Task: inverse folding
């Protein structure tokens, strides 16, 4: 490969992996942005012996977020707080159906709340059933 070719390859690698990439080339496209197939947004594990693990779920029961990605973050779910045997305060999410309410609905809910995650500080729920994430300064 010629020096010019190597320079171009190095330049391409730098541009495509650099933090400046999004400034130079725009936001990186995700595979989900290039397909109309939305099967990745959820599924129902009909073989699970615990299904339905929550009652009152709206739409198709979404098992994709069985271990809720918001467990360590502030969320609008109706959780209760308990202290485990190690003295750590934890969420009891038994009454929450939000990560299970339909394929698209649960997917959109989780994505929205993960956009600007705020670490949960162990306090009781104060935003009960509110669907909008807290505003944070960026
Ligand atoms: S209350 Fe609901 S949304 Fe919040 S962490 Fe538990 S399961 Fe997730």
Result:
């Amino acid at each position: 490969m010629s020096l010019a070719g190597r320079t171009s390859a190095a330049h391409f690698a730098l541009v495509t992996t650099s933090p400046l990439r999004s400034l130079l080339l725009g936001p990186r496209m995700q595979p989900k942005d290039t397909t109309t197939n939305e099967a990745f947004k959820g599924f129902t594990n009909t073989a699970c012996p615990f299904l339905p693990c929550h009652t009152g779920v709206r739409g198709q029961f979404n098992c994709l977020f069985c271990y809720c990605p918001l467990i360590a973050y502030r969320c609008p779910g109706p959780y209760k707080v308990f202290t485990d045997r190690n003295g750590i305060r934890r969420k009891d999410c038994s009454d929450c159906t939000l990560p299970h309410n339909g394929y698209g609905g649960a997917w959109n809910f989780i994505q929205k709340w993960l956009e600007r995650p705020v670490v949960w500080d162990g306090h009781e729920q104060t935003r009960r059933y509110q669907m909008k994430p807290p505003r944070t300064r960026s």
